Amino acid sequence: MERVRGAGAVLAVLVVLGAPPAAGEELSGVFQWMGKQECHFINGTEQVRFLERHFYNREQLLHFDSDVGVYVGDTPFGEIQARDYNSHREYLKYKRGQVDTYCRYNYKLGTPFSVERRVPPSVSISLVLSSSQPGPGRLLCSGMDFYPAPVQVRWFQDGQELPEHVVATDVVPNGDWTYQVLVLLEIPPRRGVTYSCQVEHVSLEHPLSRHWEMPPDTVRSKILVGVGGFVLGLVFLALGLGFYLWEKSS
Ligand SMILES: *[C@@H]1O[C@H](CO)[C@@H](O)[C@H](O)[C@H]1NC(C)=O
């Protein structure tokens, strides 16, 4: 069941200033009226609730809830206003119709770029080295720039799922209608093992997998081979020399 909450346009924000304030001068007062219209969609347009809220200086005065069908005051002054709104039968009929004329109407307009918006994640594995604890580091799987938010990320080791030693961040909104998530494998990677990160998302037909293996440590292995060969050479040289001298003296 999807639940989409669409806030309607702010009707008006009125800020009354005594005079244009000069630098360092105090405002004589701020008086703010604000209206919010919200459409709550449960299971698409199966169940829709229209909510209109009126505020004065951040305090909610009254509201109209389509589940109730009349204005209801939230403060003594709001009650007076609610009574006035409710006395206009035609206006109430119009408000009750806004679940259709406003909410359902806008749902249809907005669906292609909101409800049906799909952006697949880009997935990558990186080795993060810790400055405080030396060692082989840890593997981090990044799922970037996907929409909508629900996502599943799993780590595998040679095809076997690793349900433990896995920590994930919350799914973080980037603020541009995309999300990201980072999933860390808490155990150090071992040589000769293949690690896979698998991501499932509604935008993907099949789960997306990335694989990682410890790269051969080329520089160190070359040094080891070189040093090993040199030592072996020295041993043979010494043996040969020993035999030669021993033969010569006997
Ligand atoms: C959602 O709405 C559809 C019809 O649009 C209905 O068939 C389905 O049962 C509803 N699902 C839930 C969970 O209410």
TrEMBL record:
Single GO cellular component term: MHC class II protein complex
What GO biological process terms are annotated to this protein in UniProt?
adaptive immune response; antigen processing and presentation of peptide or polysaccharide antigen via MHC class II
Which N-terminal residues, if any, form the signal peptide? Answer: 1-24
- Recorded topology in the membrane: Single-pass type I membrane protein
Where is the protein localized? Membrane
Q: Which residues form the Ig-like domain?
A: 121-209
Superkingdom as given in the UniProt entry: Eukaryota
Q: Give the transmembrane region(s).
A: 223-246
Kindly give the InterPro entries that the UniProt entry links to this protein: Ig-like_dom (IPR007110), Ig-like_dom_sf (IPR036179), Ig-like_fold (IPR013783), Ig/MHC_CS (IPR003006), Ig_C1-set (IPR003597), MHC/Immunoglobulin (IPR050160), MHC_I/II-like_Ag-recog (IPR011162), MHC_II_a/b_N (IPR014745)
Key words of the record? Adaptive immunity, Disulfide bond, Glycoprotein, Immunity, Membrane, MHC II, Signal, Transmembrane, Transmembrane helix
**Can the keyword Cell membrane be found in this entry's annotation?**
no
Q: What is this protein called?
A: LOW QUALITY PROTEIN: class II histocompatibility antigen, B-L beta chain-like
Question: Which source organism?
Answer: Pipra filicauda
